[in-house]
TrEMBL record, chain A:
One of its GO terms (biological process) is modification-dependent protein catabolic process. The 20S proteasome core is composed of 14 alpha and 14 beta subunits that assemble into four stacked heptameric rings, resulting in a barrel-shaped structure. The two inner rings, each composed of seven catalytic beta subunits, are sandwiched by two outer rings, each composed of seven alpha subunits. The catalytic chamber with the active sites is on the inside of the barrel. Has a gated structure, the ends of the cylinder being occluded by the N-termini of the alpha-subunits. Is capped by the proteasome-associated ATPase, ARC. PROSITE patterns: PROTEASOME_ALPHA_2. Belongs to the peptidase T1A family. Signal peptide: none annotated. Gene3D superfamilies: Glutamine Phosphoribosylpyrophosphate, subunit 1, domain 1. The formation of the proteasomal ATPase ARC-20S proteasome complex, likely via the docking of the C-termini of ARC into the intersubunit pockets in the alpha-rings, may trigger opening of the gate for substrate entry. Interconversion between the open-gate and close-gate conformations leads to a dynamic regulation of the 20S proteasome proteolysis activity. It comes from the Bacteria. Residues 280-290 have a biased composition (Gly residues). This is Proteasome subunit alpha. GO terms for molecular function: threonine-type endopeptidase activity. It comes from Modestobacter muralis. Residues 238-318 are annotated as: Disordered.
Amino acid sequence: MTMPYYASAEQVMRDRSEYARKGISRGRSVAVLTYADGVLFIAENPSSTLHKVSELYDRIGFAAVGRYSEFESLRVAGIRLADVRGYSYNRRDVTGRVIANAYAQTLGAVFTEQMKPYEVELCVAEVGATAETDQLYRLTFDGSIVDEPDFVVMGGQAEAVTGHLRNTFRAGLPLAEALAVGVAALATVSSATAANGGGHDRMPAEQLEVAVLDRRRPKRAFRRVVGAALRTLLDPQAPEADAVAADPAADESPQPAHAPSRPEPGTPPGLGDPADIDTAGGGGAGGGGAEVAPATQDGTDGGTGNDGEADRLGDTAS
Amino acid sequence: MTDASTGRSGFSPAYLDRVGSSFTDFLGSSAPDLLPGRRTLPAVPVGELSPHATTIVAATYAGGVLMGGDRRATMGNLISSRDIEKVYAADSWSVIGIAGAAGIAIEMVRLYQVELEHYEKIEGMTMSLDGKANRLAAMIRGNLGAAMQGLAVVPLFAGYDLDAAEGTSPGRIFSYDVTGGNYEERGYASVGSGSLFAKNSLKKTWRPGLSAEAATHSVVESLYDAADDDSATGGPDPVRRLYPIVYRVDAEGAVRLTDAEVAAVADTIITERSARQDEEG
């Protein structure tokens, strides 16, 4: 039997760290920011179905960068842990800390015991009753866990984005402003913007995956912001009708299966009324009673017109 | 969690296995003791020792479907509860009503709610209505052994079909038997001890394409009729202000009617019936 060349533990760990860092830095960035009503996830992600941001539980969300297959299995594991805990104890007993700890243990074990570390970086965000109780946990490939106060930036060139956010971020911004701050920070490094050789003045809506954990919502706080709602939020000046007219593909696109109903005319686009029920999986046992209606865009992937954007993406990206 | 085979914390391999979106299947492999169908069964019939929930009715109407249930649970000849809730929202687009052994049934409803939400979170989209009906059938099938010992659970499932073709009714009702048989019903359905009387009542009052108000009236009246003739079904109780639980599922989602709404309908029915009595009197 041939003995492998001796490598010190220090060297092995350093090599693994370098390998993981390289893998992560190749990807696009994700920013997770607190805002007045909760937590805002902004990911640069041209795919409308392969999500980087997800719901884990009622008040807990998840964002990840790196290798999709690896963070996808971690995302599913987090959902399973949350649901098993919520089912065997109570929904209130599921906390972000528990899930973040499980992630930290798993990442740490994989990092030390396996040849190849996970090339992922995760953020577990939990929205509380007040802004003070919001939690952002940042988890790195080696299992270290940090509780960040205001925002977390992960992925390629996270340092540059963080630097930009340090100057522009303020706590307690309203949603549209927080989104503008976050998108501007991501745009400084994004290859889609003109500054970096792309074809856009600023980040286009179809390059972004945006979701919020809205503390005002009664049960499931997670909600995706897609389609016309996202365009309106990104550019409040442009009337929504123009935004839709400028995107003919959105009208022709087939409705995704199980699309939620359209909102009543006059309901605010996008986030809808926080008192609304969840589009699916919502009203718990004995819940309800209130006269509420689901808004258009929620947990289901691809709301109105989202598929059209994905189609269009092929043209704009080339 | 329960799987400590690796001897350290963090997710066990079952958690990290990406294949599969079913919560029940996952529990079956990682924590089977949490599943209602996996326990050792009592050797003797124990049906008399556990509370039983009774009549559930469901009826379609022009814009969706309604489901209602009375508030009584019985244990042998005793009324074990006057205010039990037997109709639940399974998710935002479907409702489930339960008849049979109340303890197992409520546990099954909780599991079913998590099952639907779990699928939705993992897949990023809602399960189809037929898929939901089939998942429920599988759950009932797992309870067959307990059913043989007097702990049968028979649900009624109804939902708004988001994929319904143009011109077909989006409100759909599925009934089950103890073996997990799954039958789609046309128009209206009922399960539980008072179902015979409730169904007869609906047969006379229900018409295709009723308005929501008329259908609510039909549903509450059928529960009244069931309570009239079946000792295990409770009627409206104005003294304690206990009224049937009625859920409406339409394009806007599943909504529980407020007690005030149901009370108004129940009071109308009582007034109508007592007026008729006066005429005859």
